[in-house]
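To whoever picks this up:

The nightly regression suite flagged Transmembrane protein as changed. Nothing in the input moved, so I suspect the structure step. Input below, exactly as stored in the fixture:
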Amino acid sequence: MGFIEFSGFVAILKESIKVLAKNGHAMATIATLSILLHSLLLFANIFATKTVINDLLAKETLLLLLVPQGPELADLLVGLKKDIRIILGVELAILIVSFLVSLFSMGATILVSSTCKNILSFKDLMLSRLARSCARSLITSFHIALFLVGYVILFLTMLIPIRVFIDRPFALKFVSILFGIVALLFWIYLSVVWVLGLVVSVMEESCYGIEALGRAGGLVKGKRLYGFALNFLFTMALVIVFEGCRMIKDRKSLSVQIILGVLVIVFYCLVAIFQYMTLTVLYFECKKAQGEEIELQGSLEYSKVPLNTT
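Regenerated output under the current build:
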C-alpha cells in the first residue's frame, strides 16, 4: 500500500470517527441493544443446553463403561438421539435469532451512518426503512453464504493434494498453515465486494442479491485496496481477541465461559458496528469516485464524505 492509498485508508477511518461523534447517541443505542440481545442469547444457549449436555455425557459414559445390551442399549440410544436433537434444535434457533439481530444491527448502523441528522426518530429508522433494508440484506446474505460455502469447499479440496503428497508432519503443518494464511487473505480480498454488497442492499432500493453484489463490484473498482485494508484490520482485531480467549486457562468453568462470552460479544458488536460505519463511508467515497451524485432518499439525508484521496 503506497502513501496515497494509506492516506485514503486513514481518511476513511477519520471520517468514520466523525460520523460516530455526530450520531453518537443513536450508535450507542444500537450497540447497547445489540450487546444486550446477543448476551441474552448467550445465557439462553448456556442454560437451555446445560442440563441436556450433562445428561448426554452421562449416557455416553454409561454406554462406554457398562456396555449395555438389549432393551437397555436401545433405551440409551434413543435417549442419546433425543438429547442430540434437542441440542441441535436449540443451537439452530439461537443461531437464527443471533443472525437476525446482527442483520438489524447492521442495517440500523448503515442507515444512521448515512444521515446528517443527530437523532433518527423511531418512525424514520425502524418503520420506514429498516425492515425493508434488512429484507434486502437477508437475500444478499443468502447469496454471500453460497459463495462462502463454495470458497470453503474449494479450499478443502485444494488441501487434499497437500495431505496426500506431503508425509512429513512438520512440513505438512507448515504448508497447511501457509496455505491457510493465503486462503484467509484471499477471502478478506473477496469479502470486500460481499460486505459492500450488504451496504448497497441497505442503501439502495430494489437492489439486492446478485444485483447488489454486482453493483458493489462496480463501485469498488479503484478503491478495493481500501476495503481490503479495512476488512484486514477488523478481521485481525477479532482474531487476536478470540485467540486471546483461547489461551485463558480454566475455560471449562461456567462463570469463566459466561464472562469470556460477554466480553467477546461486547468486542464483536463494537467492532462490527464500526466496521459497517467505515464501509458506509467507503460506499459514499466509491460513489463520488464513480461520479455519482449522493442523493436524498425518503427522509434520510446521505452524508457527503469529504475525502480528497483518489
